[in-house]
Amino acid sequence: MRWWGWGEDGHVVAMPEAATALLREEIGADPSAPPRHHVALEEVRLPAPRLPAAARERLSAAVGAERVRDDREARVAHAAGRSYPDLVRLRVGDGSSAPDAVVTPESVDQVRAVLAACAEGGVAVVPFGGGTSVVGGVEPVSDGFAGAVSIDLRSLDRVVSIDRTSLTATFEAGLNGPRIEGALGAEGLTLGHFPQSFEYSTVGGWIATRSAGVASTGYGRIDELVEGLRLVAPAGEVDARALPASAAGPDLRELLVGSEGVLGVICEATLRVRRAPGERRYEGWWFGSFAEGREAFRVMEQADASPDVARLSDEDETRFSLVFASPGGAVERLGRAYLRARGRESGCLAIVGFEGTAEDVERRRVRTGSLLRAGGGIALGRRPGELWVRSRYTGPYLRDELLDRAILVDTLETAGSWTNLDSLYRATADALRSALSERGTRPFVMCHVSHLYRSGASLYFTFMARQQDDALAQWRAAKAAASEAIVAAGGTITHHHAVGRDHARWMRAEVGEMGLELIRAAKERLDPAGIMNPGKLLPS
């Protein structure tokens, strides 16, 4: 992962001229302005490492001196996640949040020894997987501690076992998405978990943040796929056994999944897997309005006819998607001509995807199609779905391009009931537009529905504006306004990005005071010195 952005060098997503024109019209972006590139690594300002000598000696004894690094490259790479404010700070050379050292254990025993050393020395510990958090979840907080270390789990990367009979697989926490799918694919299996961060995020990170993938409507969120896990805490270990079900008291998995590193380090997990699909079919549909499409999706979901991927863009996201995917091309022209002939040129694009055996995919798509058609949908065929599949991981790369053009761009998500979804959508979008407009920057706000449930769905917002000189103040105003609107409208403060630092202040509204006390009680028992990922999940 590049220290200043997403992905690796050489992977560039170009902005089509039509998309540039749309942003010029909507937010007043200046395409002729010189790009704002990041500073050189050598120019990043870092505080001097302050890890006590005794703590460093114990860490070196635990993992080997070569696995305790405090060089510039290691510290900058672990200074933050990949949220908009993270990248704004890093790109201008602000490395003030860098850890004092990066420790890379190779085994569970070494993780245990690292935590013991840090607890004794009063050193904060930040578990670090792929570093893809967009809510401040891996930013070291060392106030009140003798220092802070990132515990990088990339070397805990074993495929422990794959059970084709029980359809489970056990992985160490540092394995990333491609390696997991590669190992399963060799056995004719799949996990089916494909978050936008799939290329770089890890199984430990998915579990720690209650991740959802683009196909979670069909395959389930990660919390539905965890059958067992092992967490190492400063005070000991918790082993939630891998069982299909149990009535033996409260489910410990539910306490550990989503714990965001504040209770301990997730080191190993057993997950439910499936037979790899023989057929994948993705299609596009068109609805006259966002409201019409939402209602069609509700009926489809409650009829148990949802596809594995179900995504409905509102009017503005549809406009942006069309100009970005095939601006002025033959496909776009033919598509618009077809919709004009049906009297539906304006509206909203939906993507539905089916995976399974050929017979199962065909049976499901016929039933789903009849419900979507009854709900006002027009079938667009496979081309829009295939374009979406090819570009489903490009969003973070595009953000780097927009940052070069001095454009604020960020995402946030929530979820609510079908009854409340429209008011939640309008309240959040209006709050974003008002907050950005009041600062003198024209906003462009778009949204899509995804991750369907019988009782409701998630809403995923993307918002843009010209970047102001005080970019962080501009972002904070928009983020706070949207978060307050979400809470007031009855939505969850996060559907799958997690809490981290950015959402911690709204956790009281999410779980109540007694709920916070329960989480704090678990933390005090497992982490009596309070060293585990301070500042995250729980409001101060």
Give a quick rundown of the structure.
The chain has 540 residues and is α+β, with helices and mostly antiparallel strands. The protein has helices spanning 17-27, 53-63, 72-77, 84-91, 108-121, 177-185, 203-208, 216-219, 222-225, 252-256, 290-302, 315-325, 330-341, 358-374, 383-391, 395-404, 421-437, 471-488, 507-526; strands at 68-69, 101-103, 123-128, 147-152, 159-163, 168-172, 189-190, 226-233, 236-240, 265-272, 274-275, 279-287, 309-313, 348-356, 378-381, 407-417, 444-452, 456-466.
Main sheet: which strands, in order across? Answer: 15-12-14-13-17-18-16
Quick one: how many beta strands? 18
Euclidean distance between termini CA atoms: 31 Å
Question: Helical proportion?
Answer: 25-40%
Average of the residue pLDDT scores: 95
Share of β-strand residues: 15-25%
Instruction: Identify low-pLDDT runs.
Output: none
What does the radius of gyration come to? 23 Å
Structural class by sheet pairing and helices: alpha+beta
> Please, how many helices?
19
Overall 3D form = globular
Q: How many strands, which pairing sense, and closed or not: the largest β-sheet?
A: 7 strands, antiparallel
Task: Give a verbal description of the structure.
This protein is of the alpha+beta class. Helix content is 38%, strand content 20%. The protein is built from 19 helices and 18 strands. It has a 7-stranded antiparallel beta sheet with strand order 15-12-14-13-17-18-16, sandwiched between helices. A 5-stranded antiparallel beta sheet has the order 5-6-10-8-9. A hairpin with a 4-residue loop joins strand 5 and strand 6 (168-172). Helix 11 packs across helix 14 (358-374).
